[in-house]
Amino acid sequence: MTIESDPSYPAHWEADVVLRDGGTARIRPITTADAGRLVSFYEQVSDESKYYRFFAPYPRLSDRDVRRFTHHDFVDRVGLAATVGGEFIATVRYDRIGADGRSATGPADEAEVAFLVQDAHQGRGVASALLEHIGAVARERGIRRFAAEVLPANTKMIKVFTDAGYQQKRSFEDGSVHLTLDLEPTAESLAVQRAREQRAEARSVQRLLAPGSVAVVGVSRTGGGLGAATLRNLRDGGFHGHLYAVNEAAEADLLDGVRAYRRLADIGAPVDLAVLAVPAERVPEAVAACGEHGVQGLVVLSAGYGESGPAGLARQRELVRQVRSYGMRLIGPNAYGVINSAPDVELNASLTPAPLPARGRIGLFTQSGAIGIALLSALLRRGEGLSSFVSAGNRADVSGNDILQYWYEDEATDVALLYLETLGNPRKFSRLARRTAAVKPVVVAKGGRHTPAGHVVPGTRLPEATVSALLRQAGVIRVDTVTELVDVGLLLASQPLPAGPRIAILGNSESLGVLTYDACLTQGLRPLPPLDLTTAAEPADFRDALAAALASEANDAVVVTAIPWVGGHEPAGELADALREAVAAHPGKPVAVVHVELGALAEALSAGAAPAPAAARPGPAGAPAPAPIQESAAERAALRPRPSADGLRIPAYPAAERAVKAVAEGVRYGQWRRANAEAGLVPAYEDIDEAGAGAQLARLLAGVDGRSVLTLSDFDAHALLDRYGIHVLPTLPALSPDAAVRAARALGYPLALKATAPHLRHRADLGGVRLDLANETELRRSYEELTETLGKPAEIQPVVQAMVPRGVDTVVRSVIDPAAGAVLSFGLAGVASELLGDTAHRLVPATDRDAAELIRSIRTAPLLFGWRGSDPVDTPALEELLLRLSRLVDDHPEVIGVSLEPVVVATEGLSVLSATVRIAHPPARSDVGPRTLPSY
Asked: How far is CA 23 from CA 30, 54, 201, in A?
């Protein structure tokens, strides 16, 4: 609620948040226009809560109170309100105080803080969310500590403060508890904040996927259209809760066998989820009806939003604002729907009719409805089961990040498959994916190499190979196609992770075995020589060979290949049983099957896959609402792959390359899981001068406008880097032959003469560098050659620099990408590496493990480790340089770009010969600060 007439109004403090129960609230500054809302809010607060707030009976607010609580300068006096439906549900206020406890102005850095939460909304985490936001506001205004007086009986508010994770002091004075909180974020406060974020966002998705009642708004009386199709799918899918149809022209009590109403308000019972299938121009009216009825979440199938152009995008933004104003969450618009196969829910609020994939262990998220159709069909065709499915369309609100929060703790989901066109908030996605990948695989197929219409997210300048590398750093399995997404998902959902890259190959075709062997080498695996069982092999021969391979310690996974038998007899069922029997006798290793023209074998291997879904049973309108999802341990065990021959699932692939690709991704993911079992460390170097660097940056940026980028002089760049232990070899200008000689006398021979003009910098191929100049004669001759060839001294800007020990020339960089954040990059210097794009990347802050992996992940890495008999270089020194640079850009977001080129790594130590540093006022980051939903 921006007050346009008041330029001091801090609109950037407005935010939407997800509360503990999964609902949403709007947090915004309190203004003079809120007097009526404040009085109404206060009248709904109990006498007990009022007593806790004011330490005395306080039945009503006086006019003076109302003025004091609505008039703020947004610096020394700030009030925030949490609102739902435009009405206050909670308030928080701080007043800056001095050492004597009285009102003060800056530079006093302490403030008194107080909360009041409406009784009906206590326990929803409103106060905790307000504390995060008022704390961020206070830090912005130079306040470093909060003081609070709380009555001992007010245990809920004491807990809000003590559980926040901030450093605090607590004392008992004059009958009240005195609390002092240091507002500087700590590792504990950040962990608390992210844990609350995870629980709240996961709960918000659960409310969408496990509703007790669903209303479909916009059901045609003729049975056509999106609404009628969704209603039928809900009914025929056996949804366990209450089901309602809404059509303003409904004339009968039933539509398609479901209780029908003209208006949502006519339903005399709660509605948890509403599916909107009305034209876009009528959606606002439907949303308002849902909000007034207390609906918890919406699935909007209607099109005509961001995908349709600027007008639709504006309509989409208004939709999100309206939905959130009522405390609801939204899937869509232009969504395909949601599915939850849990046995006590069986929700099919999508446009996909039966048959659906059986209940299983794969969770599926897509932005595209068409891709969702393809993926559901592929899972059904290949006999794999589904735990939940969300096709979010324009994903204006609920995104892949929210679904990852849900899947992280969802015991029904073992593998997360996502088709993404954009990453939205890549920093948050990387953080959530890394945490989820530590306990279950996350597989991503990323389309949309360019930002499509309807997805208002920052684009990334990073190439696709870099995005893939950063995803892998987070443990995400990146695949290129929807087919690979299903292939990899099948293997991970049904097979254990490989312990290593050694692959046994066996089958009844030598040629197919060789193809599989080649595919393994292409994927970087270590295949054993294929075992040819010959075309005369019977199912028993396959069983015995597979059992022997699984029992052997010489391999980590097995690929079985099979071609049709000569003579027309195809014992596909017997072969499937034989393979399952061998796997049941020797569990613990993954097995994949390659079949050529043996579709019956693939069907037989998937026949005993996931448990069959419960029989469809239409839920009568008066059926009792289901209890929250709580599977017993026995039920969960029944859903998991079992080591019995009847229920074992063995994925089958029609091509060797597809099977091996899936196995290889499992190998790489297993390696990542083992390597990340213990978190890497971000070293704390004692010689780093963080405060000094901060002061230098503040001084350099003084007077620089918020949009300008400043490239530091060599003197300032070297001084800044030196504060982090990164020492750049000095250079001396040589604008004449005599100046070059004087510089040489100061530095000593041998030395180098370089042209440093922008068009010549780092271009040794243009002849702008002369090395190993041993005396004045050589220096003068080289200077003359340089100026005659490349131009006058003022044009080429020559410098003199001391020689360093020979080694491998490398390049170390860091850049701030608008979407991915700070990225650390490494490669070898030279045109060949640049031409081939042989550069590796890691997200900042980098750990010691990240730094070690970074220098080993480029294709030319062998040159660092003694290629062809050369001496290995000092890679520990190189890793330390990377970690120090990572610390610099992580500690100081003002540093938006650093290039160290070249960095000569010798057998002992390294030398940084040149450095370029760019700085700017730090941009706002969406992954730090208080919890907020994306702003549209």
From this structure: 21, 29, 9
- CA neighbor of 226 nearest in space, from 329, 319, 334, 340: 334
Give the distance, in angstroms, between the CA of residue 72 and the centroid of all CA atoms in the same chain.
37
- The span from the CA of 71 to the CA of 245, in Å, is 47
Dig out the tokens for 230 from the structure: 């969704």
What is the 3 state secondary structure string of 319-388? HHHHHHHCCCEEECCCCCEEEECCCCCCEEEECCCCCCCCEEEEEEEECCHHHHHHHHHHHHHCCCCEEE
The arithmetic mean of pLDDT across residues 616-625, rounded, is: 34
Alpha helices by DSSP H, listed for 457-598, are 464-473, 482-494, 510-522, 539-551, 572-585
- Reported as a pLDDT band with limits 50, 70 and 90, residue 620 is very low
* pLDDT above 70: percentage of residues in the chain: 91
Q: Report the sign of the C-alpha dihedral through residues 781, 787, 790, 796, in that order.
A: positive
Place of tokens 């009555």: 151
Each residue's pLDDT tens digit, 571-611: 889 999 999 999 999 999 999 999 998 888 888 888 754 43
pLDDT digits (tens, 9 = 90+) for 319-353: 999 999 999 999 999 999 999 999 999 999 999 99
CA angle 335, 276, 311 (to 5 degrees): 65
Whether 425 contacts 927, CB under 8 Å: yes
Average pLDDT over residues 461-482: 79
**836: which 2 tokens?**
């081939």
Tokens of 408: 């992280």
CB 594 within 8 A of CB 656: yes
Q: Over range 207-224, report the average pLDDT.
A: 93
The DSSP symbol for 647 reads T
CA distances from 189 to 192, 196, 492 (A): 5, 11, 35
Return the number of other C-beta atoms located less than 10 Å from residue 230's C-beta: 27
H helices present in 17-154, as ranges: 35-43, 47-54, 63-70, 126-140
Mean pLDDT rounded to a whole number for the chain: 89
Q: What is the pLDDT of residues 112-133, one digit of tens each?
A: 999 999 999 999 999 999 999 9
- Under 8 Å CB-to-CB from 715, ≥6 apart: which residues? none
Distance CA 904, CA 878 (A): 9
Give the torsion through C-alpha atoms of 288, 294, 295, 300, to 10 deg: 10
Token digits of residue 227: 């609404």
Torsion angles phi and psi, residue 13, rounded to 5: -85, -10
Say if residue 2's pLDDT is above 50: no
For the stretch 623-646, pLDDT in tens is 333 333 333 333 333 333 333 345
Residues 6+ apart with CB under 8 A from 566: 535
Cα dihedral sign, 361-365-366-369: positive
Measured CA to CA, the distance from residue 346 to residue 354 in angstroms comes to 12
Q: For residue 645, give the DSSP letter.
A: T
Question: Is pLDDT at 851 greater than 60 in this prediction?
Answer: yes
CA distance 896 to 888: 10
In the block, tokens 């009825």 appear at: 293
In degrees, rounded to 5, the angle at the alpha carbon of residue 700 between the alpha carbons of residues 695 and 703 is 115
Give the angle 46-48-51 at the CA atoms, nearest 5°.
115
* Rounded distance between C-alpha atoms, residue 362 and residue 367, angstroms: 17
Structure tokens at 369: 């409805």
Task: Report the distance separating Cα 610 and Cα 386, nearest Å.
Answer: 9
Angle of helix 656-675 relative to helix 482-494, nearest 10 degrees, comes to: 60
Rounded CA gap, 244 and 289, in Å? 15
Three-state secondary structure along 62-108? CHHHHHHHHCCCCCCEEEEEEEECCEEEEEEEEEEECCCCCECCCCC
DSSP one-letter code for 567: T
Give the bridge partners for 365, in sequence order: 390, 418
Q: Report helix, strand and coil shares of the chain as percent, to nearest 5.
A: 40, 20, 40
Backbone angles phi, psi at 802, to 5 degrees: -65, 150
Half-sphere exposure of 865 (CA within 13 A, CB side): 9
pLDDT of residue 462: 55
